[in-house]
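re: ur msg from earlier - yeah i can do the benzoyl coenzyme A complex, just paste it... oh wait u already did. ok heres what im feeding in:
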Amino acid sequence: MDEELQREFDRVVAAEQRIEPRDWMPEGYRRTLIRQIAQHAHSEIIGMQPEGNWITRAPSLRRKAILLAKVQDEAGHGLYLYAATETLGADREDLTQKLINGRQKYSSIFNYPTLSFADVGVIGWLVDGAAICNQVPLCRTSYGPYARAMIRVCKEESFHQRQGYELLMTMMRGTEAQRRQVQDAVDRWWWPSLMMFGPPDDASSNTEQSMAWRIKRHTNDELRQKFVDMSVPQADKLGVTLPDPELRWNAERGHHDFGTPDWDEFWRVVKGDGPCNAQRVAHRRKSHDDGAWVREAATAHAAKRAAKESAA
Ligand code: BYC
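and the outut:
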């Protein structure tokens, strides 16, 4: 029986059809999806903090409204993704506990500080740009609810990226000090953005199996290369220098060559020792605690209603 179910699963995946919540799936597939989607959800929720830092200090009403909308979108992305994990049998409260107890990961990128308003623009351009590069292929991931969530997420991400690029264009047309601020932000965010794609393929423990299951559609290095190739002309147009002396066009490969990210730094940040890890998790834990009364009130309300309905 199990063999038959496995054959059907393999057939659906190979035929580029979608596995749905009601379908049989190997336990490892379910676990891998919960791991990846939960990390993705946590990243969206933790990712609200670095930019949220600038909402009260945005330089104009227009910039504040844009930033508010973007940060709210991220909360929405987190919710779709937590909902997708629930279709796999995960429990959202359990995932939240794992995040605030440091037992589940979120993207390394959100452990760096946002030091100036130019960081808001650079996060939009580079961080959301990297997110799009990584997530557009996930619209074709083999698990239906994840693939469908990604379609909407990607539409919103592309607005996020454009708002960032437009902000930077505006600053680059401004004063010399503003241009310096943009360059400084690019210098700080470039390498961490390359690290978002995960470790090099030969150090990526999950890629091979995730590619076979068509959860991942490209390897970490393939997507990182795509991102570099995409960003170089954008940096040129913006008038900033990407902080990599080894970055150059390789006509033979038809791609840019580029330097090696500091993988020791990456693993330190992933293991919890980045510039803002402790602060990000503490903030998330406090928000969760502060929200306890809302959850209690909602649960009490639901129980009362259920009691009323059953009495009626
Ligand atoms: N940071 O075998 P690998 C966003 C972990 S949200 C931390 O290659 P995989 C946005 C990895 O989990 C951005 N940890 O893993 C939000 C694994 O550890 P475990 C998030 C990382 O899963 C708000 C180990 O290292 N995007 O863009 O095959 C505002 C070995 O790695 C990282 C997603 O989550 C990292 N950067 O590939 C703006 C997209 N990289 O779990 C923007 C969905 C790796 O075995 N996720 N690790 O203990 C994916 O596409 C894949 O999970 C990854 C990693 C490419 C990220």
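cool cool. The beta strands are 248-250, 255-257. ping me if u need the other ligands too
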